[in-house]
Specification:
2 domains; five-stranded parallel β-sheet; about 280 residues; Rossmann fold; single chain
C-alpha cells in the first residue's frame, strides 16, 4: 500500500455499530482502525445520537452482526434515513450463514462474512469507489460490477500447492492476470524454487490444510501462505494463522479477494523480513 492510497483511505470516515470486541472480527477491526477514520457505537441508538450530535456524515456504516436478527430492522432503517447517501455494510459471523435463504436479511446492505471483510472493504474504501454500494443493487449485480473493476497488480513467482493439474491451472490463470508467474508444487514436492513470494494452498476442507502445510518443504515455512478452503470456522482460522504468515480465504471467492490478499501477504512478509 503506497502513501497515496493510505492517505485516500484515511480520509474516509467509517461508523461501526455493534460489538467492537467480538472474537469473530477482532482482526478485522484492527485492520479497519489502520485503514480509515473509525468511530464505534455499541448500539443503533448510540449511533443515532452520535450522528445527531456531531452532524458528521460517514461514507460507510458497518453493522456488526454476530448472529441472525441481531439488529432490529427498523433501527437500521432509521440510520439509513439519516444517511441517504452512505454505503451500508453488514459484517456477519458464522451464525448468519444461510440467512439469505431462510432468514430475514436486511435490505439495502452489502452482506460480507467475517472472512470476506478486509478485501471487500478495501475495495469499497479505495480510489474510484465512491459510487459503490448502491442500496438498490442485488448481490448478483454487485458481483457483476466487481468483476469489471481493475484487479490488484503483482509481480514475481508464486507457488501453488494443488492436488490436480486442473486446480493448479485455474489458480495459475487467475494469478497471471495480475502479473504473477507460478510454479506447481505437486503433492510430495521435496524442493521448492528459490524466490517464491507467496504460496497458495488449495484444499477442500480447512481441517486438511494443516497436514498439507506440514508436507511442504521445511524452507517454505518463512514464506507467506494463503489457504483456500470451504466453510472456514474461526477456531480453525486462528489455529492456522497463529504463525503470522498464513491467511485463509473461503471458497467461493472473488478474484479480487484472492489478489488483494496476495498483495497484502507479500507486503507484510517483506516488512517482517526487513525488520
Amino acid at each position: 500500500m503506497n502513501d497515496g492510497d493510505l492517505e485516500q483511505k484515511r480520509r474516509e470516515l467509517v461508523l461501526f455499530v455493534g460489538r467492537v470486541n467480538d472474537p469473530a472480527w477482532r482482526a478485522q477491526m484492527q485492520w479497519l482502525r489502520d485503514a480509515c477514520e473509525l468511530v464505534c457505537c455499541a448500539t443503533v441508538s448510540a449511533a443515532e445520537k452520535w450522528l445527531m450530535d456531531t452532524r458528521r456524515f460517514p461514507g460507510t456504516v458497518v453493522f456488526g452482526q454476530p448472529h441472525r436478527d441481531f439488529f432490529d430492522a427498523t433501527g437500521i432503517q432509521r440510520v439509513a434515513q439519516l444517511l441517504p447517501m452512505t454505503r451500508l455494510v453488514s459484517l456477519e459471523g458464522s451464525w448468519c450463514e444461510g440467512s439469505a435463504r431462510s432468514g430475514h436479511p436486511y435490505q439495502g446492505l452489502q452482506r460480507w462474512y467475517w472472512h470476506q471483510f478486509q478485501p471487500r472493504m478495501a475495495h469499497l474504501l479505495g480510489p474510484g469507489s465512491l459510487s459503490s454500494g448502491n442500496r438498490t443493487e442485488t448481490e448478483h449485480e454487485r458481483a457483476i460490477e466487481a468483476s469489471r473493476q481493475s484487479l490488484p497488480r503483482g509481480s514475481g513467482l508464486l507457488g501453488i500447492a494443488a492436488r490436480s493439474r486442473v486446480t493448479y491451472e485455474s489458480i495459475d490463470h487467475a494469478c497471471r492476470l495480475a502479473g504473477y508467474r507460478t510454479n506447481w508444487l505437486r503433492p510430495g514436492t521435496v524442493d521448492i524454487p528459490t524466490g517464491l513470494r507467496a504460496i497458495v494452498v488449495d484444499t477442500k476442507q480447512i481441517s486438511d490444510a494443516e497436514r498439507l502445510l506440514e508436507q511442504l518443504p521445511g524452507k517454505s515455512s518463512d514464506i507467506p501462505r494463503i489457504v483456500l478452503a470451504n466453510f472456514p470456522r474461526l477456531a480453525d482460522v486462528k489455529k492456522l494463522s497463529i504463525d503470522g504468515r498464513t491467511r485463509v480465504l473461503a471458497k467461493p471467492f472473488r478474484l479480487h479477494d484472492l489478489l488483494w490478499l496476495l498483495a497484502e501477504c507479500i507486503d507484510e512478509g517483506e516488512v517482517a523480513r526487513a525488520a
